[in-house]
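User: Reviewer 2 asked us to show a designed sequence for the structure in our supplementary figure. I'm pasting the structure tokens here. Could you produce the per-position amino acids so we can include them in the response letter?
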């Protein structure tokens, strides 16, 4: 028996559906593979796929020729995708400022933007961003070598909602640019300025209390600048790993004014002295984790102060400290009631007897022989759009 032909073909049924129906279907697709397949079905579905796209990510190919071709495609892709809320162009070193003109098409929706290692972007490109994307919350500019204070000022004046900013290795910025961020972005809570060696710290003067996470590794703050760094009073995480000293003096005692500090990374701060350790230990009662690895300037008075004052300390790093001895361990063992983990290795003045006595006084503390380079919350989580 022959099947009777359908009066209306499947194609006609589909053609009766509105774009809103297709968009609703598209939004229910969870797999990126399925979303891409949807867009390749026909021209209209390709248009729907672009309208429905909320995120755009380019992965660096480490091939200059390929990355150059990718950079040429960016304006067209941005023009076809007006509702993006997250864009990552990380690694596109050939990306020119002109490619950012079309950002204004999705500007009101855009909340996260990454130019990680986009060395072709200059202050002019940031000006386009500032004008077209007023609702940005997360911006990554790490290793954008041509960004200066002019670009930061433009960004801060156009993007008042900014909360997380990564300026790592932006060697062209100074305290003036950082000051502009704090003046215009009053909700800033996360800032990375690692490797920005032109900063003295004075740009932090009067910074908002919303700033709770600061990574400033390998910087060259002045002692007065360090006092400005904590002037906002809201810092909970601070990393000054390998902090240099332009004066050869230890100004780290100023950190005692960071009353909210919970995690402090002073790894390889060679100018750190006992006086500063005493000030920090007594002035920062909420400290939960403290990295003092390779801090050779800390002697018995410093370790004793930690044992005496750090009543909330859970994790302590003392790897490769030349001047921690058995008596220092005894002082730590007599104090630090909440201590859970002690990272300790290659400490020449510590003997097995000292370790045994410490374990007797603190039987629940885990002694770990590993050395941790980074502590605190994951940067990826801090710069993830929620």
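Assistant: Here is a per-position design you can include in the supplement:
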């Amino acid at each position: 028996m022959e099947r009777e032909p359908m009066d209306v073909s499947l194609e006609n049924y589909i053609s009766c559906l509105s774009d809103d129906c297709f968009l609703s279907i598209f939004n229910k697709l969870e797999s990126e593979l399925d979303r891409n397949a949807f867009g390749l079905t026909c021209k209209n579905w390709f248009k729907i796929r672009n309208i429905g796209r909320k995120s755009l990510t380019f992965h660096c190919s480490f091939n200059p020729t390929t990355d150059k071709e990718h950079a040429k495609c960016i304006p067209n892709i941005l023009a076809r995708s007006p509702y993006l809320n997250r864009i990552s162009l990380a690694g596109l070193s050939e990306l020119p400022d002109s490619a950012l003109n079309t950002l204004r098409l999705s500007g009101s929706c855009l909340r996260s933007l990454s130019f990680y290692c986009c060395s072709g972007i200059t202050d002019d490109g940031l000006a386009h961003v500032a004008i077209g994307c007023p609702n940005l919350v997360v911006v990554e500019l790490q290793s954008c070598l041509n960004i200066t204070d002019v670009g930061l000022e433009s960004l801060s004046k156009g993007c008042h909602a900014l909360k997380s900013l990564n300026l790592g290795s932006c060697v062209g910025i100074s305290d003036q640019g950082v000051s502009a961020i704090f003046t215009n972005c009053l909700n800033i809570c996360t800032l990375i300025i690692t490797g920005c060696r032109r900063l003295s710290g004075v740009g932090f003067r009067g910074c908002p209390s919303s700033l709770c996470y600061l990574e400033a590794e390998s910087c060259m703050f002045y002692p007065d600048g360090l006092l400005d760094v904590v002037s906002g009073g809201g810092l909970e995480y601070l990393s000054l790993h390998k902090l240099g000293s332009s004066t050869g003096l230890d100004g780290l005692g100023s950190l005692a004014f960071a009353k909210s500090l919970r995690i402090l990374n002073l790894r390889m701060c060679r100018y750190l002295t006992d006086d500063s350790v005493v000030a920090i230990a007594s002035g920062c009662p909420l400290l939960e984790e403290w990295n003092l690895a390779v801090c050779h300037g800390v002697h018995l008075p410093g370790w004793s102060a930690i044992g005496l004052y750090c009543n909330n300390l859970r994790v302590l790093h003392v790897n490769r400290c030349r001047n921690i001895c058995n008596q220092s361990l005894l002082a730590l063992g007599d104090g630090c009631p909440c201590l859970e983990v002690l990272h300790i290795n290659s400490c020449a003045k510590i003997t097995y007897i000292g370790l045994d006595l410490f374990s007797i006084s603190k039987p629940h503390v885990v002694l770990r022989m590993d050395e941790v380079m980074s502590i605190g919350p994951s940067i990826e989580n801090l710069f993830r759009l929620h």
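For the response letter, you might also mention the following. The chain has a mean pLDDT of 88. The chain is about 35% helix and 10% strand.
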